[in-house]
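Tutorial handout. Part one gives the primary structure; part two gives the three-dimensional structure as tokens.
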Amino acid sequence: MNDLEIKIVRYFNGIGGKNAAVFLGFINSISFLAFFWTVLVVLAIDKHPEIAKPFLEAIVIVAVLHFGITEGIIKHLLLRIIPKRKRPFVAYPQSITPIGRKFSDSSFPSSHMATTVAMLVVIGSFYPSLIIPAIIFAAIIAFSRLHNGMHYPTDILAGVLLGVSYGYLALALVQILR
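Part two.
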């Protein structure tokens, strides 16, 4: 493991107090993220029903790509060939405090970042006025994954790259299907 990555995670893990930990643990919970994305999609469709079909198609494609590639192939199938990457709080329990749910799968890549960025790409494509809030939300998720001791910076970067790929591939597939 790269010493710089460990130092970065330790630094982020030490920022903020109890309130920050509670907030960041909450926004990283799977139930909150599922609720957040569902409400956002429903509101978007309600406000602009004329683009509901291609928007929903892109969202479904993003989900299929994410769960098929990130969760299926990378995090489970490849782990039969290469060893899983221990999460920072597991690898360095003496200096990194886990915050929120203690995930036990491989830290590489960050699934939270892959889905968040993929949704950012799709939402930004259909609703350009939401691109800045979406980027801010993605930055908060990236910060919190480091702060919570769940990921290394390269896990976050890989998740971002996968998310961008999934988002643009979904948009391209929607165009092909039209």
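Part three, for discussion. The two ends are 46 Å apart (CA to CA). The chain has a mean pLDDT of 89.
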